Amino acid sequence: MSDETYYDVPLLKPPVWTWEVPVYFFVGGAAGASAVIALAAQLTGADRKLVRDARRLAAGGAVLSGPLLVADLGRPERFLHMLRVFKPRSAMSVGAWTLTVFGGASAGAALVKGRLGDLAAALSAATGLVMATYTGVLLGATAIPVWAEHKKTLPIIFGASGLASAVALLELRGHDEPALNALGFAAAAAEAALARQTKRIGAAELFSGLIPAVLRIGGLKSKRLRRVAAGAALLGSLLTRLAWVEAGKASAKNPRTALR
Known about the structure:
The chain is mainly α.
């Protein structure tokens, strides 16, 4: 019997999450950040097509997020049960309520025109900011060593990753505004810095941080490089979620196990 097991049973129960959870983290993060971009674009007088597409991405991500979360829970009634009472100290409760409000607001922003649609867009952006970051809070609130150790940086990592994904999706949809490239670079630079801070340098960190950051600098005069940077950012964002979930499983089985 070792320090990390009790009669060969791990002291911590590893997460039993399947692929739906990291994909939900990825989709929800991109959707939430898209809502924030939509509101920022609207307030700064950017191209209306950018506002429209960002709102649609937010709404589409919300539509996909619900089934992904319910699929992991196993039964729809479990999700509904979490809506019976709002628990501010529970990241899961906050997440369920946020997804519900975000879904309705983002749908309204995408479908309704005029002042009512703009009000829905403002609510979508406010809850979208939570959507992009709360999953990091959710992981950090557990007893899993590798998640608890980085509880302050995980929301920032997931937020930056969500922003990078939203920017990438808009660019791949044909938008070429310099502001998007600047946001993409800022997100990539932040992820590269956080990777160094958390001592994590692997495929996920390279594709989400260093590679798109370098490509976006070179892409100031090259549309093709900006598209490649967008593709790398999307891949890196998904890999980041997968890597942190798998790290949690390994850390629960062996608390001394590092992320790598």
